[in-house]
Amino acid sequence: MSRPRFLPDNFTLLLITVVLLASFVPVYGQGAQLFEAITTVAIGLLFFLHGAKLSREAIIGGITHWRLHVLIMLCTFALFPLLGWALRPVLQPLVTPDLYVGVLYLCVLPATVQSAIAFTAMARGNVAAAICSASASTLLGVFITPVLVNLLVVPGQHAGQSLDAVGKILLQLLLPFVVGHLMRPWVGEWVKAHAKLVKVVDQGSILLVVYAAFSAAVVAGLWRETPWPALIGLVVLCCVLLAVVLVSTTLLARKLGFSKEDEITIVFCGSKKSLASGVPMAQVLFPAAMAGPVLLPVMLFHQIQLMVCAQLALRYGRRPD
After folding, report:
1. Residues 6+ apart with CB under 8 A from 46
2. Is residue 1 part of a domain?
3. Distance between alpha carbon 195 and the CA centroid of its chain, in Å?
4. Where does the chain cross the membrane (predicted)?
5. Which of 117, 302, 309 is nearest to 210 (CA)?
6. How many domains does the chain have?
C-alpha cells in the first residue's frame, strides 16, 4: 500500500511524537540530568561519524571556487541575521518575545549539510561545491554562531559567556568531528558501509535533545505561555523569511554571473538552516527552560524548507540539458 501524499516524512512524524511526549510526560529533576548526559554522548558520536564520513578530497575539491563560497557564507551569516533584525518591527508582533528570540537564533545558525547536498544533486547543480560549502558552513558556525548570538540574539550577554560557549561547542561538537576525520583511514569504510546506522544516530540524537529541551520548557510553562495565534504567526514568519532568502539568493547568483549549476548550489546552500547543528548548540547557548521556545522556530523552518526546496529541486531538475 502506497504512502498517502499528505503525510509528512517519518522523521517529521517522530519529531511531532517526541514534542507530544515531552508535553504530556516531561523528564525533570535527576532524570533530566541523566538524559542530558545521554544526549551529550549521542551528539558526540554523531559528529564523530560525520567526521569519519567526510573525505579529504571533498574538503579540498571545492575550496578553489571562492566566489561561490563567499556568497553562500554571506547569505548564511549576514543576509539571514540582517533580515531577522530589519524585519523585527513587522514580524515580532506575530509571535511571543521568546519565540522571536528563537527566530533570531534560527537566523544565525549555519547551513544544513545533508539536505543542501541532496537537493543540489536532485536539481543537477554543482554537487562538489555544495559538499565543500555546506561542510565549511557547519565548521564555521561553531565559531560564528555563538558570537552572533551574543551580538544579536541576547545582546546583554557578557562576552566571556560567548567565549565559554565557543569552548563548550568546540569540545562537544568539533573535537569529535576532528577525531572522527583523523580516524577515517580505519573507520571510514565501516561508516560508509553502515550508512543506515549513521542515519539512526543522526536522527536519534536530535530526537533525544528535542525531548530534553521541550521537557524543560514544558516544566517551565511553555504551552501555558504560548498562545495558538503566536504559533500560527510563527508559521507565517518562517514562510516569509524563507521566501525572501530564496528570491534573494536566486537574484544575487544571476546578477553576479554564476552558471545555472552554481546558482542551484547558492540557492540550496544559502537558504538552509541546520536543525542538526541548531539543537545541540541551543543546549549550550541557552538555559534549559528557554531551549524549547528557541528551538520551535528552528524545527518549523526546517520542515518548511524541506517541503519547499524539494519542489524547487524537482523544477530545476526538469530543465533541458
Report:
1. 176, 201, 202, 205, 276
2. no
3. 20
4. 12-28, 34-54, 66-87, 99-120, 127-153, 204-224, 230-253, 274-294
5. 302
6. 1
Nearest to 61 by CA among 111, 130, 135, 132: 132
Q: DSSP labels for 157-178? A: S-HHHHHHHHHHHIIIIIHHHH
**Alpha-carbon span 46 to 173, nearest angstrom:** 9
CATH code, domain carrying 236: 1.20.1530.20
pTM confidence score: 0.72
Enclosing H/E stretch for 122: helix 114-122
Alpha-carbon gap, residue 196 to 199, rounded angstroms: 5
- What is the C-alpha separation between 280 and 146, in angstroms, rounded? 12
Contact between residue 265 and residue 126 where contact means Cβ atoms under 8 Å apart = yes
Cell numbers placing 68: 561561490
Cβ atoms 266, 71 nearer than 8 A? yes
Q: Is residue 214 part of a domain?
A: yes
Place of cell 549555519: 110
Q: Which of 98-107, 271-280, 297-306 has the highest mean pLDDT?
A: 98-107
Residue 2 belongs to some domain of the structure: no
| Measured CA distances, 251 to 9, 266, 311 (Å) | 31, 10, 19
B/e letters for 269-303, b = 16+ CB within 10 Å, e = fewer, are bbbbbbbbbbbbbbbbbbebbbbbbbbbbbbbbbb
CB 104 within 8 A of CB 152: yes
Contact (Cβ atoms closer than 8 angstroms) between residue 124 and residue 264 = yes
pLDDT digits 0-9 by tens, 142-163: 888 888 888 887 665 543 444 5
User: Cell 567526510 identifies what position?
Assistant: 54
Is residue 3 a part of any domain in this protein? no
From residue 86, how far is each of 74, 80, 148, 295 by CA, in Å? 16, 10, 15, 21
- pLDDT at residue 109, as a whole number: 92
Torsion of CA 15, 210, 207, 265, to 10 degrees: 80
What are 72's three cell numbers? 553562500
